[in-house]
Amino acid sequence: KKGIDSNPFISSGIVDLYSKCGNMNYAEFVYLKMKVENSFAVTSMIVGYAAEGNMAEARRLFDSLADKNSVVWTAMISGYVKTQQSDDAFELFRQFMERDVRDYDALLFINLLGACTTQAIVDPGKQIHAYIMKVGIEIDEKVVTAVVDMYCKCGSIGYAERIFQNLASRDLIL
Questions:
Q1: Is pLDDT above 80 for 155?
Q2: CA angle at 122 for the pair 118 and 125, rounded to the nearest 5°
Q3: What is the Cα–Cα distance from 27 to 45, expressed in whole angstroms?
Q4: Spatial distance between the Cα atoms of 78 and 98, rounded to a whole number of angstroms
Q5: How many other C-beta atoms lie within 10 A of the C-beta of residue 12?
Q6: Do 48 and 81 form a contact (C-beta atoms < 8 A)?
């Protein structure tokens, strides 16, 4: 127990563990005892609060970070999508894009496609799909599945079928 508070790696791991177990009271207790800002711990807290549906607290933590990496942005956007607050997810993505930093990953776009699916709106989904292609995000099975799913659930079966037909390999999920 002695010295754990001063070790940011151990403390952030404990915060992550409590957050994943849904025990946000303990996670917050450990987080508040940390002596330095730690984006890993904040991300874990954001994910934990989002899992509880407490997006106000997740957003407070997000806004408290001076330096936000793509993982933190993705966690916050994912939280909005999981709590079906798609408009907030899109607005946060606009803010992310205004930063003009290109440190994003496929999971960010998979979440945004999920927001389109939640609202059954195809136009933003098409724009996201085009952007994925434009910037060269790796098109793995998860991305293709999200794109096909979005087109299907938004009523654009033709688009989904074309993407599906052009796949080199299909598995049981696709």
A1: yes
A2: 85
A3: 7
A4: 19
A5: 22
A6: no
List all residues 6 or more positions away from 130 whose beta carbon is below 8 Å from its beta carbon.
none
Give dist(CA 14, CA 34) in Å, integer. 11
Alpha helices in the chain (DSSP H): 8-20, 24-33, 39-52, 55-64, 70-82, 86-98, 106-119, 122-135, 141-153, 157-165
- At 122, list the tokens: 């195809």
The pTM (predicted TM-score) of the whole model is 0.87
Greatest Cα pair distance, the chain, in angstroms, is 62
Q: Give, in order, the Cα–Cα distances in Å from 131 to each of 48, 123, 134.
A: 29, 12, 5
- Distance, CA of 12 to CA of 32 (rounded, Å): 11
| Chain CA centroid to CA 61, Å | 15
**56, 85 contact by CB (below 8 A):** no
* CA atoms of 107 and 109, how far apart (whole Å): 5
CB 58 within 8 A of CB 39: no
Tokens found for residue 109: 């776009």
Segment 11-44, tens digit of pLDDT: 899 999 999 999 999 999 999 988 777 889 999 9
CA 101 to chain centre: 16
Tell me how far apart the alpha carbons of residues 171 and 164 are, in angstroms, rounded to a whole number: 11
CA distance 11 to 9: 6
In Å, what is the CA distance from 99 to each residue of 50, 69, 75, 104, 128?
24, 11, 17, 12, 17
